[in-house]
Write a structure and sequence with these properties.
Layout lengths: L6 H13 L2 H8 L3 H15 L4 E3 L4 E3 L1 H29 L3 E7 L1 H8 L2 H8 L3 E7 L6 H4 L3 E6 L8 E15 L1 H7 L12 E4 L7 E5 L4 E4 L2 E5 L3 H9 L4 E5 H10 L3 E3 L3 E2 L2 E9 L6 H10 L3
Parallel strand pairs: 3-4, 3-5, 7-10, 7-11
Antiparallel strand pairs: 1-2, 5-14, 6-11, 6-12, 6-14, 8-9, 8-13
Helix pairs in contact: 1-2, 1-3, 1-4, 2-3
Length: 295
């Protein structure tokens, strides 16, 4: 005989047995007690078998009901497991995410993190475009832009999420400091060779951890607007440079650079993730943003 019944009725029957009464099952499922009673009765009618002996206060399973319950409960568990698999697959970030970033951000923030991101989300298709020019995210079809900046970004239609804020500190090679001496105060910077980011940045504005500020002007030994060039020049002993912590940290760890005036900083740099509002709602884009911000 071809048995056909409503799977929802099977689920309700299992929950009723699990909770020991129609009333408790009704509370658990958030439906009236009469609904539980009616659906179990419908199931019995479809099966042509009595599953439960009812009393005014509780119920007792029939012999057939006990056997049926064992198989029904297994079926419900399997169905819930199948639904969970589908939900996990739907929630798993997948698809193309296009990222644009400046050269320093790519070198010092993304080079190590993107492989880890790709491993964490194997269904993501990541594309990174590295450029220092301003990119129009919407017109050029990017999902995410990562920009480093010293002042707050202007208001726009893009959603902003801070990735990191880091100090800019003074560093130099040990052999340079042996030759020229370790500055003990910002005033001692005068006369030292400085590695500058541009002709307009000849004067450094230094801030003490307790709030004091002072401006100093080193001798311009090299001017370069590329971070890796500055880093290598400092490590080669060419002079003192102001660099973000993330760039200088590996060289400090290896002993190629040391901090100069460690109680002073030359400001800070912020890295911000920008995304068009609608794209930022996509699970794949959200997963990338959360990963990069440590969220």
């Amino acid at each position: 005989m071809d048995m056909k019944f409503n799977f929802n009725d099977l689920h309700i029957f299992v929950r009723a047995v699990d909770h020991g009464s129609f009333a408790a099952a009704a509370r658990h499922l958030g439906v009236p007690k009469s609904t539980i009673s009616k659906r179990v009765a419908e199931l019995e009618a479809d099966l042509g078998m009595r599953l439960i002996h009812r009393t005014s206060r509780s119920f007792v399973l029939t012999d057939v009901g006990r056997d049926f319950y064992d198989h029904a409960r297994a079926a419900v568990i399997e169905a819930e497991a199948a639904e969970s698999v589908v939900q996990r697959r739907q929630a798993e970030p997948q698809g193309l995410v296009r990222i644009t970033a400046s050269v320093p951000v790519a070198q010092f923030h993304l080079a190590d993190r993107l492989p880890a991101l790709a491993s964490a989300y194997p269904k993501l298709d990541l594309q990174l475009h590295v450029t220092d020019r301003f990119v129009d995210l919407v017109r050029e079809g990017f999902d995410i832009a990562i920009r480093s900046h010293f002042a707050p970004l202007p208001d726009s239609d893009l959603v902003q999420r801070r990735m990191r804020v880091e100090r800019i500190t003074l560093v130099a090679a040990p052999d340079y400091l042996v030759r020229r001496g370790m500055p003990g105060h910002p005033d001692d910077i005068v006369g030292h060779d400085g590695l500058l980011t541009g002709p307009a940045s000849k004067t450094w504005r230094l801030m003490h951890k307790e709030g004091q500020e002072i401006q100093v002007t080193p001798e311009a030994r090299l001017i370069a607007d590329e971070s890796l060039v500055m880093l290598r020049a400092a490590a080669a002993g060419l002079g003192i440079a102001c660099l973000p912590d993330s760039m200088s940290a590996p060289f400090i760890g290896s002993g190629e650079l040391v901090r100069v005036l460690p109680d002073w900083t030359a400001g800070s740099v912020t890295s911000t993730i920008l995304t068009p509002h609608r794209r930022g709602q996509l699970p794949a884009v959200r997963a990338v943003i959360d990963f990069l911000t440590g969220g």
